[in-house]
Specification:
Number of helices: 7
Strand content: under 5%
Helix content: over 70%
Radius of gyration: 19 Å
Number of strands: 0
Largest sheet: none
Shape: elongated
Order of helices and strands: HHHHHHH
């Protein structure tokens, strides 16, 4: 279960701002911590509060909203290509090759 959650977080790597975000890093830390054998309630609360404080500082009331805001502000290769029209051009070229 832990590996799946960490993999899902890592799958957001197309969004550079997300993978470098403090709350996302702390969530990964919390997941690893909860999977450990010697986890203490104090450690868990400290990491959880760190996540929640970061969310509040960024005007978000939940993690989903925070990730959504990050994706909207992120400049990743996919969105930059779309803005330049490169993706549309590549798709058209690929479709022409398939027709020939």
């Amino acid at each position: 279960m832990t590996d799946k959650l960490l993999l899902e977080l890592a799958s957001l790597s197309i969004y550079i701002n997300i993978t470098e975000d403090t709350a996302v890093k702390k969530l990964a830390e919390l997941i690893r911590l909860l999977n450990g054998e010697s986890v203490t309630p104090e450690e868990t609360v400290k990491v959880y509060c760190g996540i929640y404080a970061h969310l509040l500082r960024n005007g978000c009331s939940n993690f989903y909203q925070h990730v959504e805001n990050l994706t909207l502000r992120d400049e990743n290769i996919f969105t930059l290509s779309c803005e330049k029209g490169e993706l549309i051009l590549m798709t058209r070229l690929r479709n022409r090759r398939m027709l020939n």
